[in-house]
Amino acid sequence: MSYYSSQYNIPTIPERIIAVLSYITSGIVGIIWLLIGALVKSNLKPFLKYHIMQSIFLMLLYYLIAHLLIFILNILAYVPFFNAIISTLNFFLNISLVHIGPFHMSIINIFIFLFIIYLSIGTLKGKYVYVPWVSNVIKGNIF
To answer: How many CA atoms lie less than 13 Å away from 110 in the CB half-sphere?
Structure first.
């Protein structure tokens, strides 16, 4: 009996691809898939629901942190000593390190790109990719 239950819990290739596309598109494919599922009135499998919700949560968290950081740095830019530090830090974090055709990647862009690759590879393997704190929030609210 356990053989059959573990066999049915293995995510299919289309589920894995949808989960990867959800990470790559910052949750947009996941939102569309959730809307299609709601219109058809079908339940998502736990694997797909986990990765879609995690990709949406990561996107919202990224934008929230980015805008909060911009707000704080704009306020600190008026303080003379912090202005020099913030300008230097901003320069070094956003300087273009990798040039691939028209694409230029800074340290922050490279980190985000590698993080998305990590999430995508784990998802393609059919695993529940763990991101500290975020995965705990998702598991607590879905399962």
So the answer is: 12
**What element of type H or E holds 99?**
strand 98-100
The three-class DSSP label of residue 100 is strand
Which helix (DSSP H) or strand (DSSP E) does residue 141 occupy?
A: helix 134-142
Range of 45's domain? 2-142
What total number of domains does the chain contain?
Answer: 1
Which residue from 18, 46, 23 is spatially nearest to 33, judged by alpha carbons? 18
pLDDT in tens, 16-57: 999 999 999 999 999 999 999 999 988 889 999 999 999 999
100-110 residue pLDDT tens: 878 888 888 89
Q: What residues does 104 pair with on adjacent strands?
A: 99
CB 109 within 8 A of CB 16: no
What secondary structure letter does DSSP report for 96?
Answer: -
Cβ atoms 44, 14 nearer than 8 A: no
Task: Give the pTM.
Answer: 0.84
Q: How far apart are CA 65 and CA 60, in angstroms?
A: 9
Half-sphere exposure of 54 (CA within 13 A, CB side): 29
